[in-house]
Amino acid sequence: MELTWHGHSCWHVQVGETSLLIDPFFGNPHTSLDPSDVDDPDYLLLTHAHEDHIAHAGEFPDATVVAVPELCGYVEDELGIENAIAGMGMNIGGTVEAGDAHVTMHRADHTNGAMTGYEHELGMPVGFVISDSKPTRESDTEATAFYHAGDTGLMSEMKDVVGSYLEPDAAAVPAGDHFTMGPAQAAIAVDWLDVDHAFPMHYDTFPPIEIDTDRFVHEVEATGSDAEVHVLDGDESFTLE
Asked: Which pLDDT tens digit goes with each residue over 93-124?
């Protein structure tokens, strides 16, 4: 599984022959890419409808959208993206097969909505666990899974559900504070998730979320977690094995 961070919360995940793009927003200081520079993904995963997460979703009209039904309806009406998982989106707790990947949706503690001259209620914000096999209660040491936490605060479900049941090997957690967790709470999330690899995201894009990423590294160490923290450069990739 190859993970590429395009700044903010935008990730490209390659599982076998299947490409998945999460929260396409290329108007951030950590990427040099324009949406036109990106190969069209097979699947477009959207955690919620804030502009800094769906700003460039309309640039990928042929992708199949993975999102809650309300958000699938919104991007179809407003952005012209007609394909959605099962034709109707998915919802929290569900797992869907997306090519060579399996995508499990989990809630995120955040807000959601969009204003386009009228108000849309767009369901609960979410995160995703992307794995190369379907999660089961039988632990599979050969399976590989990546957790994109979305925009969220610290949640006990990270320890009780995501970490213990979905068992991700790696996690991307928002660490910019102000709108999401800051370094200290993001580090607790990493510890609760019991992952081997951790990546900070959702930082430095705007002045309120500018941080020193060394703080995140130190906070993870302070929890006693064994996770290796990777502070990626924009458009840098990491191979998860």
From this structure: 999 999 999 999 999 999 887 755 445 678 89
The span from the CA of 152 to the CA of 57, in Å, is: 21
Q: Which of 202, 200, 131, 119 is nearest to 167 (CA)?
A: 131
Query: Taking the complete model, does pTM exceed 0.70, yes or no?
Result: yes
Give CA 198 to chain center in angstroms: 13
DSSP code at position 41: P
Instruction: State the total domains in the chain.
Output: 1
Angle among Cα 63, 61, 66 to the nearest 5 degrees reads 40
Across the strands, what pairs with 129?
Answer: 104, 147
Identify the domain containing residue 116 by its residue range: 2-232
Tell me the residue type at 76: E
φ/ψ of 58, rounded to 5, equals -65, -10
